[in-house]
Amino acid sequence: MLATRPPVTALAIKQATEGRNARTLSAFYADDAVIRIVDRANPPSRPRELRGKQEISAFWEDVCGRSMTHAVEATAAEGDRLAFTEACIYPDGTRVLCIAMAELEDGSIARQTVVQAWDE
């Protein structure tokens, strides 16, 4: 029996993110998807790139395994693109703000760009 991927919608992203559900988040991505992450440690000239299901799944396992809260605050979708903002808070009060743009192909995320800023 073939496993079906959950539909990638703003609501699905919100529920999986806020529920810290790494398995569902990972399932949104195509097998050859790429996530590009830009932040202080990974500037635009040298972004961190996660390639393929294995690297992306490990990333979500790490993020969702951390003791922190996630809130998807705003979403926008148009055609094959989905954008959202996410605010995170660690137990010590450290905050992270993330803005992401996902490009969909055949119902899965094929490419995603993430820009994040942390309290320092």
Protein architecture, described:
The chain has 120 residues and is of the alpha+beta class. It has one domain (10-118): Roll (Nuclear Transport Factor 2, Chain: A), CATH 3.10.450.50. The protein has 3 helices and 6 strands, in the order ααββαββββ. It is globular and about 40 Å long.
Mean pLDDT: 94
Number of strands: 6
Proportion of strand residues: over 45%
Q: What is the CATH topology descriptor?
A: Nuclear Transport Factor 2, Chain: A
Major sheet: 6 strands, mixed
CATH class category label: Alpha Beta
From the 3D coordinates, which CATH architecture would you assign? Answer: Roll
Q: SSE string, helix = H, strand = E? A: HHEEHEEEE
Which structural class is indicated by helix and strand composition? Answer: alpha+beta
Total count of domains: 1
Poorly predicted tracts of residues: none
Helix count, DSSP H or I runs of 4 or more residues: 3
First-residue to last-residue Cα separation: 48 Å
- Based on CA atoms alone, the radius of gyration comes out at 14 Å
Helix content: 10-25%
Q: What is the strand arrangement across the widest sheet?
A: 2-1-6-5-4-3
What does the overall shape look like?
Answer: globular
Q: What's the short version?
A:
With 120 residues, the chain is α+β, with helices and mostly antiparallel strands. It has one domain (10-118): Nuclear Transport Factor 2, Chain: A (Roll), CATH 3.10.450.50.
